[in-house]
Amino acid sequence: MFKGLRKDVRAIRERDPAARSSVEVFLLYSGLHALIFYRFSHWFYTHRLFFIARLISQFARFCTGIEIHPGAKIARGVFIDHGAGVVIGETAEIGEGCTIYQGVTLGGTGKDRGKRHPTLGKNVMVGSGAKILGPFTVGDNAKIAAGAVVLEPIPADATAVGVPARVVRQGNKKVAQDLDQVHIPDPVSQELCKLMIKIAALEKRVKELEDGAE
User: DSSP string covering 139-166, please?
Assistant: First the structure.
């Protein structure tokens, strides 16, 4: 346990330039505190003491502002930076070396039982306010931009941005996409054109019926 805690502290010191000492990290970092509470609650959860597990997790949420379901699986070396508003669901899995910023949600969609939350590979970075929703995998070394909403799998070494998120970089290469935001079709105009075509067809049909009646 203490070996794992040292690994968590070391991961924070390596990735946060504001961390001046291990003592500071241990005493003052809410992300680390949330993970410590999580380790205890997860132990109770795996031993089917669900009420105690949830009690610990809710107390941790009150103290840190970070909600981690005790059923989640979180490896060592994970860094939750600042952490306020982070929500991690019951069947979420987070690989070693991941970095999660404030406001991130690893959530599910629908009310189905079983695996319904995302799996993050190793060394994934999830930016502030990003939402990853669904039972799919975000590959190793992927980066999710701040504010992105991820609804489908993201390959390894990719960078995803936007709502819904799209992959804009794979490894060190840009992904070819049409991102022209000026010369785009007007959806209202398109719908009006469709209506005009339908009205013209109906008018023609009515005229044919009237001519036939005469």
Answer: PTT-EE-TT-EE-S-B-TTEEEETTTTE
Q: Are strands 166-170 and 173-174 parallel, antiparallel or unpaired?
A: antiparallel
* Residue pLDDT, tens place only, 158-206: 888 888 888 887 776 665 544 444 444 556 777 888 899 999 999 988 8
Residue 14: pLDDT above 60?
A: yes
Confidence of residue 16 (pLDDT cuts 50, 70, 90): confident
Residue 210 confidence (pLDDT) above 90 = no
Q: Are 68 and 57 in contact (CB under 8 A)?
A: yes
DSSP for the chain reads -HHHHHHHHHHHHHH-TT---HHHHHHH-HHHHHHHHHHHHHHHHHTT-HHHHHHHHHHHHHHHS-EE-TT-EE-TT-EE-S-TT-EE-TT-EE-TT-EE-TT-EEE--SS--SS-S-EE-TT-EE-TT-EEESS-EEPTT-EE-TT-EE-S-B-TTEEEETTTTEEEEETTEEPP----SSS---HHHHHHHHHHHHHHHHHHHHHHHHHHH-
Burial environment of residue 209 by CB neighbours within 10 A (0 to 12, 13 to 18, 19 or more): exposed
- For the stretch 85-119, pLDDT in tens is 999 999 999 999 999 999 999 998 777 778 899 99
